[in-house]
Amino acid sequence: xxxxxxxxxxxxxxxxxxxxxxxxxxxxxxxxxxxxxxxxxxxxxxxxxxxxxxxxxxxxxxxxxxxxxxxxxxxxxxxxxxxxxxxxxxxxxxxxxxxxxxxxxxxxxxxxxxxx
Length: 116
Description:
Order of helices and strands: HHHHH
Structural class: mainly alpha
Radius of gyration: 14 Å
Number of strands: 0
Mean pLDDT: 88
Strand content: under 5%
Shape: globular
Helix content: 55-70%
């Protein structure tokens, strides 16, 4: 994804509380892999969530276990979004990790807006 992909969302929404909810949502949706971030507490920003997620995506891709596609469906990336990520230049796992972070953040923000 382009370097400024995180600028496509309203970053004022990225409060420490929402960032923590985002981290927990990612861990929940990747639960079948046992994935958990190494750091405790809230992440500092959206990009800080990408590297560890990218690592697990690389591992899942090399294992060919089918778990990667289960995660894509669980995160609720559309087929169109998945194809767009696959067609982008650069590191595929990094692009997918960014797309997952963005989609999960959308879910957290939407949940907050409609919960209030």
